[in-house]
Amino acid sequence: MDVLITLLGKPGCHLCDDAREVIRRVAADLGVRWEERDITQSEEDTREYWEQIPVTLINGVQHDFWRVDEARLRKAVKELR
């Protein structure tokens, strides 16, 4: 199964910077795609996720928020593949 990790964040978010590094590393190690979405570009995303960023989605389903646990993310991606 194809896996896509999505990072929802906003500019100037230091937790988003930390999450980006973890997601980039996991995606590279496991050979999966990842993308980043700026919640400030969508009123709906801003309303839904403002209090939780960074938010990690796997194939569109929320996986984590605030902090990305690398081991948990790796396990979830491996289970989907």
Entry summary:
With 81 residues, the protein is α+β, with helices and mostly antiparallel strands.
What this model shows, in words?
The chain has 81 residues and is an alpha+beta fold. Helix content is 43%, strand content 26%. The chain has a four-stranded mixed beta sheet with strand order 2-1-3-4, with helices on one face. Strand 3 (55-58) and strand 4 (61-65) form a beta hairpin. Helix 1 (14-30) crosses helix 3 (70-80). The longest helix is centred in the N-terminal third of the chain and has 17 residues, at 14-30. The radius of gyration is 12 Å and the shape is globular.
Task: List the main descriptive attributes of the protein structure presented here.
alpha+beta, globular
Summarize the topology:
Layout: E1 4-9, H1 14-30, E2 33-38, H2 43-49, E3 55-58, E4 61-65, H3 70-80
Helix pairs in contact: 1-3
Helix content: 40-55%
Strand order of the largest sheet: 2-1-3-4
Largest sheet: 4 strands, mixed
Termini, distance in Å? Answer: 5 Å
